[in-house]
Amino acid sequence: MNIIIKYKWPITIGLLVVTALLFVIAPNLTKQAEDAGTFQLPDDAASKRAAEILNDAGAGEETISVVYTFDETLDDSAKEEISSTVKEIQKIGEPISSVLAPFGSEELEAQLVSEDQKTVLVPITVDGSQEEVVELADKIRTDLLDEQESVYLTGEAIINHDVNLSAQEGLKKTEIITVILIFALLLAVFRSLVTPIIPLLSVGITYLLSQSLVAFFIDWFGFPVSNYTQIFLVAILFGIGTDYCILLLSRFKEELGAGQPINDAIVRTYKTAGRTLYISGLAVFIGFFAIGFADFPIFKSAVAVAVGIAVLLLVLSTVMPFFMATLKEKMFWPSKKTVSHNDSKLWGWMSKLSVNRPLLSMLVVAAITVPLLFTYDDALSFNTVDEVGNSYESVKGLRAIESGFGQGDSLPVQVLLSSDEKLVTEDTVPYVEKLSAELVKIDGVDSVRSITRPAGEVITELYADYQIGRVAEGVSQAADGLDGAVQGLSQAAQAPQAQTAPSNAGAPQQNPLEGLNQISEGLHTAGEQLQGMSESKTIRDTGLYIPKGTLENEEFAQVIDRYAFGEEKGTKLEVILTDNPYSPEAIDTVDRISVTTERVMKDTPLEDAEVAIGGVSSINRDLSDISNSDFTQTVTIMLISLFVALVIIFRSFIMPLYMIGSLLLTYFTSVAVAEWIFVNGLGYDGISWAVPFFGFVMLIALGVDYSIFLLDRFREESANGLSVVDAINVSMSKMGTVIITAAIILAGTFGAMIPSGVLSLVQIATIVITGLLLYGLIVLPLLIPAMTVSFGNGVWWPFKSKKMK
Q1: Is 99 in a helix, a strand, or coil?
Q2: CATH number of the domain at 2-32+163-384+621-796, please?
Q3: Strand partners, 610
Q4: Phi and psi of 53, rounded to 5°?
Q5: Core-most of 4, 360, 453, 671, by most CB within 10 Å?
Q6: How many CB atoms lie within 10 A of CB 91?
Q7: Which residues of 149-176 are buried (b: 16+ CB within 10 A; e: fewer)?
Q8: Are 370 and 376 in contact (CB under 8 A)?
Q9: Measured between alpha carbons, how far is 271 from 1 in angstroms, rounded to an integer?
Q10: What is the pTM of this model?
Q11: List of residues 6+ apart from 376 with CB closer than 8 A
């Protein structure tokens, strides 16, 4: 530390120059997060495989929709306006692949115009990246739709873009509010106009430098990134950085008050409070570093915070001593004292309860937390649309589709069948219909659109019973014709040979032999069809029969175009759900669709085809499976890592156990509160799927700081010779105000996430704020001391407490 003080100017100037340089040349972290995507599923995920199959077959286009809504029933002028717009859209060209005109045919009109005639869809197929899709949507809106408020553009790519946009706008709000809030809180704590500026400058340098390093790591090493990366850097670095600054500044003020020279006061500050700072920083670093072992990139993206913590410790070890040595007592101007290290009367009173009556203290904590734990259902939501709310055009368009056509029609589930051989043949298509018929029976499925059901309704002409009926009609007509021919031949035989002139005003009589030939040909054709049907395996298996050449007819061309891909080596079925595609019920339905598809395809010509299920509901099913397994794995690694680190730091197996246990109790109580607010109170399907993971990581990694603040002081007092009871009492009184102040400030920085408007961030903030306040005001002052005195000297097991000389 003496060397840092000696070379404070070159060190600080050098760090500022490096920070500024990296900030200028570093890649754009916001752009990197958007490019990474909203979900980032692994390659073996079913929905990811579905997208790859379509891309490999050259059919991986995105579909967006222009949604027209009307207060009154659709009229001719509205139809003309829509048709005119369709033509203008078609003229745009690339990257548009096709545009479906809603009035092009009766079948299309039935599919694209709602039953009440108040909602019309114009689906646009786009062959391009998400960025190109968004640019196209902006162009259509600006050039063709102008400011028409009752017309919306929506689609999965546009919704995902709006989620990213919402997150970035939320980040900007959070940054501004965080800085203002921290300044106000520090002003209240230190009662100084200078002191609040020091932590903000120190943490500001940390944030800029961390952001640049993370951006470079993403480019160089494929570092994970998501929309959560930047906002967590802001919330955690400003929150925990301010806490650490309070710890250092309070101790520095205390040393100055004791009459220490400036340099000695700085050195002493870093030997005492600095030790706690590094221990806490190490624990937080380990917590976030452990996230790097996650498999899911979105979860793993929070590992960027570990980079930020490392940079924070560097900055607080260099820039903070610079300010201390340069400003000296003026750091606290105009205040002569600070309340931050006064003995805490509240914690002093709570220590009497927890130390003198540990069992009662534990019962109080249990009475507050346990009832809430019993209300926790672990209900999760995968509704991405909730993240952005109803103010965005893409969401308004989605709601209009749901209102006009039903929730499931907006984003159907895609069942893809892909093979190395041609899959769309007369021998295989009947089995596609068999699969369609079985899928439509599933609970939660409204209808199925496929190559045999292009509009969602069965093509009855493909069924054998219908065809047999038509053949029977033909044979009956042939019999009637044969009777007529026989009568004609009889009349011709009776007529005089000389009557050969034409009758009926010169029109020639039909040659009976020609009629017989036609009848013969008809019967021959009917016989061939019946023979083919009798030999067809598809009739026995599916009840369908497709005569040779049927699929080559022009009538089928448009259908095959839509439901076949990859030179007809693949086909897709669109499954319309009865539930919202984003709902938990939709995930369960996808499970049933998957099971049914495997069962129906077994022992059929489709058995060897690869099956993949795409669409929003399938993506959410993959998210559910992956996030659940990754949560368990990553949390286990994180807790074990923290336990080992705490054992080494405190030289005890016992203290780390109840430190971590108290944090787990706090987390599950806090997430139960959040569930009660957002599910029971506000009516959401559940807590957003990523929230429990990030809420857990944030609360455990940050909450452990406060238990370290308390128990490291307890270790210090014990080493000075105090008994367990006396040491915990002194620690409670000395650290109470610091911990409460730090918890309020950190809770405040997370509170700055609430105005962001991004649901998952609001929920994470709710969990962390609830947890920090619950931990700082109840669990930590009541449970931790009670557990400590209950173990007595056994709290150091299997090690022994070292006494300071």
Answers
A1: strand
A2: 1.20.1640.10
A3: 418
A4: -60, -45
A5: 671
A6: 10
A7: eebbbbbbbbbbbbbbbbbbebbebbbe
A8: no
A9: 9
A10: 0.82
A11: 668, 671, 672, 675
* pLDDT digits 0-9 by tens, 107-147: 778 888 998 999 999 989 888 888 888 899 999 988 888 77
DSSP 552: G
Please, which residues bridge with residue 564 across strands? 571
Residues 6+ apart with CB under 8 A from 667: 695, 696, 699, 700, 767, 771
Which comes out higher in pLDDT, residue 435 or 512? 435
Q: Which residues contact 161 (CB under 8 A, 6 or more apart)?
A: 34, 130, 133, 134, 394
Cα 207 to Cα 630: distance, rounded to the nearest angstrom? 28
Extents of the domains making up the chain:
2-32+163-384+621-796, 60-149, 412-478+515-614
CA 522 to chain centre: 61
Interstrand relation of 445-449 and 564-565 (parallel, antiparallel or unpaired): unpaired
Name the residue among 469, 477, 33 with its Cα closest to residue 223.
Answer: 33
For residue 213, the model assigns a pLDDT of 96
Rg (the chain; Cα; Å): 37
Buried b (16+ CB within 10 A) or exposed e, 46-82: bbbbbbebbeebebebbbbbbbbbbeeebeeeeeeeb
* All residues at 6 or more sequence positions from 357 whose CB lies less than 8 Å from its CB, including other chains: none
Question: Greater confidence, 468 or 609?
Answer: 609
Are 583 and 589 in contact by the 8 Å Cβ rule? The answer is no
Rounded CA-CA distance 288/291 in Å is: 5
Give CA–CA dist 291/311, Å, rounded.
18
pLDDT tens digits, one per residue of 168-194: 888 788 888 888 888 888 888 778 888
Return the CATH class of domain 60-149. Answer: alpha beta
